[in-house]
Specification:
alpha/beta; Rossmann fold; seven-stranded mixed sheet; 6 helices; globular; His_PPase_superfam; Fructose-2,6-bisphosphatase; PG/BPGM_mutase_AS
Length: about 210
């Protein structure tokens, strides 16, 4: 778990990018650069709507276009420049990228699962080990927390965000991060989290705690 070295609490909003073309086509995207769909652009606007009354001081995104596009309405509304960061990209799935998600029901599934549980440096061919992925996310998060003051928005990817949440909250169990939720994390001793619904009947509703179903 990360400590808050500032005298004042830091708040972070953590969002997954909106629906991408790869998501819509049920492809394994990884670090492929695919744009948002119409639904994804709606989700980007919902994110902006929920954050209109927040005094954001920084917006960080993965450098992949689906994350940048998701943050743009919020950045434009608040007049904040998006800081695009390569180290916030999704894990690289190597030769599986661009394949239908159904490929995970075939023999490559075992390799994919092993890489995500990596303890020995195993990776999908052309891909990234979990150890390498965890290190780059952890290092980048530490860097952002050292230099950031105020309230920040981070827009990234499923596995990236799950890693960030786990590190910030000291979680030992899996988290299922969805793009229908925005996570509000307050760093402290202990840290706390609220889950905010994006879109649908409960748009903008804040749930205390981590809601990941």
């Amino acid at each position: 778990m990360f400590e808050n070295n500032s005298s004042a609490p830091k708040r972070l909003f953590l969002a997954r990018h909106g629906e991408s073309v790869a998501n819509q086509q049920k492809l394994i995207s990884g670090q492929l650069d695919t744009p948002l769909t119409g639904k994804g652009k709606d989700q980007a606007q919902w994110l902006c709507d929920v954050l209109k009354n927040e005094s954001l001081s920084a917006i960080y995104t993965s450098s992949l276009s689906r994350a940048v596009e998701t943050a743009k309405p919020t950045a434009n509304y608040h007049g904040i420049e998006i800081q695009q960061i390569d180290n916030l990209k999704e894990i690289h799935f190597g030769l599986l990228q661009g394949n239908p998600v159904d490929v995970l029901d075939t023999p490559p599934q075992a390799l994919c699962q092993n890489s995500m549980k990596d303890t020995q440096g195993l990776a999908i061919t052309g891909g990234e080990t979990l150890t390498t992925f965890e290190r780059r996310i952890t290092d980048q998060l530490e860097l952002m927390l050292q230099h950031h003051r105020g309230i920040a928005l981070i827009v990234a990817h499923r596995n990236t965000n799950e890693m960030i949440l786990s590190k910030l909250l000291g979680l030992t169990h899996a988290v299922n991060v969805k793009n229908k939720y925005l996570y509000e994390i307050t760093l402290g001793d202990p840290p706390s989290v609220n889950t905010i619904r994006l879109g649908g009947e409960f748009h903008g509703k804040k749930f205390v705690g981590l809601k990941d179903e």
